[in-house]
């Protein structure tokens, strides 16, 4: 459920009419709903309420500081994968003790900065990384809290580009090797083992792969305790999918996911950490664009928008489906026709939808891409010298620009001529 509904035939973000925002900030833009972000965060905290837990929002899905502060002020932790994300979390007022640091390639500079700034735990993905963290922590005279990310060799049954839990993926330490690597970690002076971490992929629409992975984590936790390690936290990663169309199979609900976690891991006495991104941010955002031209082609018609693949990469990158709706509601029975919905970028891949049944839109009409909050703005680029588009946050009847559209002067000022030109 989200808070983007038609009121009086006009699409609104909570209490604000989308055309009102478009008139002020221009198109295209992203708009996020505070009520939807809050609601989805709370679904997780409620689902895990019988257990000690921390919901660490995966910043990579939507990293605007205003969004992070909205969630951080509710008590959310953050999952970061770079020092840039760490600094965003801190800028949003989230203390280091609520930030976990994931990722296969943390640099030494990133590790040092996180240790100096304060960190809840590093989720470590390799033996060389373990040694690097221990060395840096020792030099700083501290012990770094760590969990090992184990690779459970489970098929997440999602898009190949976003599955991470199979043995052939670059992620984590093979679970069969985990006991030996934990022994090495315990022997390193700069480390304090606190838990086990797992993340098997994104946009999972079935609980079975999660459960298979969590049962392996359970078994490992019992073995590690026998080996003398103090395992007090289990970080279960993110990955719960969202419905991208009204009609597809509804993915499991957070409450079902939470019940499964309690069933599989609840008796271990561990604090449960989860790292959801998409389920919190995905349906909390729209991408709003304008029709530039309606073009008749050979046997097909094109809706050419002012948004493109550089603004929302998911359709061209993963063949992802996003519902595209008119901002002015069409009445039941109004005529529709199939359109190829495309952007202005000079690639055929700049196609949002093929043969999509849409109302008969005209130049200047506004459309909204649903479920665009996650992996939308964060994956945008300036390809074709198209400026990054603004982000807007709505809260009830108010809205605010939370990232401005840069001017071309600002963009051009970043390019420098070398002395010989
Ligand atoms: N934790 C770790 C270690 C991750 O790698 C990810 C996502 C998450 C948590 C959050 O997963 P979520 O709850 O959002 O599924 N760009 C792709 C998705 C990439 C996901 C990468 N890792 C897309 O647009 O579908």
Q: Identify every distinct bound molecule in the structure, by name, code or SMILES.
A: ligand LLP
The CATH topology of the largest domain turns out to be TIM Barrel
In the residues, how many domains can be counted? 2
- The CATH superfamily name of the largest domain is Alanine racemase
Specify Rg, calculated over alpha carbons. 23 Å
Q: What structural category characterises the helix and strand content?
A: alpha/beta
Average pLDDT across residues?
Answer: 96
CATH class of the largest domain equals: Alpha Beta
Q: Give the CA-based shape.
A: globular
Work out the helicity level.
25-40%
In CATH, the architecture of the largest domain is: Alpha-Beta Barrel
Query: Which regions are unreliable across 5 or more consecutive residues at pLDDT < 50?
Result: none
The number of distinct β-strands equals: 21
Measure the end-to-end span: 56 Å
Strand composition percent = 25-35%
Q: Main sheet, how many strands, which sense, barrel?
A: 9 strands, mixed
Number of helices: 12
């Amino acid at each position: 459920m989200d808070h983007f509904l038609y009121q009086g035939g006009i699409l609104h973000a909570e209490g604000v009419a989308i055309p009102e925002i478009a008139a002020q900030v221009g198109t295209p833009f992203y708009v996020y709903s505070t009520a939807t972000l809050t609601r989805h965060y709370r679904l997780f905290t409620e689902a895990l309420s019988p257990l000690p837990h921390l919901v660490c929002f995966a910043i990579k899905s939507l990293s605007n500081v205003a969004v992070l502060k909205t969630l951080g002020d509710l008590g959310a932790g953050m999952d970061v994968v770079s020092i840039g994300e760490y600094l965003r979390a801190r800028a949003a007022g989230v203390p280091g003790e609520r930030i976990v640091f994931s990722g296969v390639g943390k640099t030494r500079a990133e590790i040092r900065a996180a240790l100096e700034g304060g960190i809840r735990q590093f989720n470590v993905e390799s033996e060389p990384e373990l040694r690097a963290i221990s060395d840096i922590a020792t030099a700083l005279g501290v012990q770094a809290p760590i969990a090992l990310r184990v690779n459970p060799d489970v098929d997440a049954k999602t898009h190949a580009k976003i599955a991470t839990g199979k043995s052939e993926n670059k992620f984590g330490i093979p679970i069969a090797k985990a006991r030996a690597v934990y022994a090495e970690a315990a022997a390193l002076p700069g480390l304090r083992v606190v838990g086990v971490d797992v993340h098997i992929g994104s946009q999972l629409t079935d609980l079975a792969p999660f459960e298979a992975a969590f049962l392996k984590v359970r078994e490992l936790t019992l073995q590690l305790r026998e080996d003398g390690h103090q395992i007090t936290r289990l970080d279960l990663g993110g990955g719960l999918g969202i419905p991208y169309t009204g009609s597809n199979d509804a993915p499991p609900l957070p409450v079902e996911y939470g019940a499964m976690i309690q069933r599989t891991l609840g008796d271990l006495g561990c604090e449960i950490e989860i790292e959801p991104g998409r389920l919190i941010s995905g349906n909390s955002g729209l991408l709003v664009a304008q029709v530039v031209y309606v073009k008749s082609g050979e046997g097909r018609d094109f809706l050419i928008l002012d948004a493109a693949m550089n603004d929302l990469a998911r359709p061209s990158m993963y063949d992802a489906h996003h519902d595209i709706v008119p901002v002015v509601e069409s009445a039941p029975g109004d005529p529709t026709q199939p359109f190829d919905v495309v952007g202005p970028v000079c690639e055929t891949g700049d196609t949002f939808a093929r043969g999509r049944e849409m109302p008969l839109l005209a130049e200047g009409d506004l459309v909204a891409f649903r479920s665009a909050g996650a992996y939308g703005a964060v994956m945008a680029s300036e390809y074709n010298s198209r400026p990054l588009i603004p982000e807007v946050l709505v809260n009830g009847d108010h809205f605010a620009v939370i990232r401005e559209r840069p001017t071309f002067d600002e963009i051009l000022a970043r390019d420098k001529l070398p002395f010989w030109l």
